[in-house]
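Q: My collaborator sent me two sequences in one message, no labels, and asked for predicted structures for both. Can we handle them in order? The first one she listed is below.
A: Yes, handling them in the order given. First sequence, followed by its structure tokens:
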Amino acid sequence: MRQVCFTATVGACLALAQTSDSRAQEADQNGWYLRGGPVGIFFSPGADLSVGGAPFPGADVSVDDNYSLSFDVGYRVNEQISATFTFGIPPTAEIRGDGSLAGAYLGDVTYAPAILALQYRFPTGNPMFEPYVGAGINYTMILDSKARDVAGFDVDNAWGTVLQVGFESMIDERLGVYFDVKKIWLEADVGGTLGVGGPAAAGKATLDPLLVGTGLIWRF
């Protein structure tokens, strides 16, 4: 009888220890973390423009790819839910004409995108591979516009929606690496004057950038 009681007691203690360890591991995952590393920004541009108040058929734009550094400030609520605020070093994009505007160099734009998103993390039980999906909102602030062939070239700040997919791989309890892809659907109002004293041009530019980044994670 004593052996049975001893065995049951030991079994209960082991089960309690495993539960406590599991809760401790989950608690270690929760809380604040930082991520940072290089990011590539690849645009899918388009334009709907008018000149002198009349539609300008066939007008289009192209935007060169950009590369920068991106940073996330994140908070992990529990094993499956987290939230991030993403920002980065502002890059500068060259915006050129395409289609019926081919050959025109419209201007340069320095911009600062900021993203607030929620993530759902798929529990795999393997800290070396933890995939996630996310969704959120983007606000792109235009810090500077420099006119080239379009006098007074100007691009407005704009809101957009974001979808996200990626994974994290933890090296130890604090340090890890990540790979992340974000798609932003973004349109911005643009305007200017074609040449000195020429007709006013205005419209919407579709940017729809794809952000592909990787880097390091540090959990507090």
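Q: And the one she listed second?
A: Here it is, processed independently of the first:
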Amino acid sequence: MTETEARTARLAWVKDDDPRWDADRERIFATVPEGVFRAEARTPGERLSSDWWRVEDGGRVVGYGWLDDVWGDAEILLAVEEAARGTGAGAFALARLEEEAAARGLNYVLNVVRDTHPDRTAVTEWFLAHGFTGTEDGRLRKRVGDRARDIGQHQAGRPGTSKAELPDQGHQARYAVERERAAARPRTDVEHPGGSDLGPGAEESGGYVDQEQHRF
């Protein structure tokens, strides 16, 4: 077992049933370089939208994964604290987010690396190396609906090897309501030059992506 595999073997993926802005999020997002997300003041205890998970290493939170499936596929976000980057924590979170999306019967996970990201090229290459492909509108997309395909690091002994479980009936009912509400929302063809200035946890935004530019 390699050192990276040994480290990721002890990581835990923990659902945050009541996601709120707290000290752990403040600590981790403070280490994210400027330009990755919109700098936005958050109030301690502020309720955050959509679904969040914590990545824990020995009980310490070292990262977060975020997923919004309102638009039919899954827009995802992940953040890992500076000290844990390069240890496999990011790939662990990505693989788990793909499993969550596949378990819900979704077809794709999507991510956007903003033009203002200081390491845009390197991060884009990281996603490409994990099976994503670029689209004409700048999104990165990966198919996860076909379980016969490689999802994340689905090789033996690596994160993401567990069988995906379907969400409970309560969650499925909520997803159905959200999709119906999204379908009924009036849409506009007006574009938003310069991209979105939405930050992590922005209401129904997909984190830092512009929902008007990412309909599917």
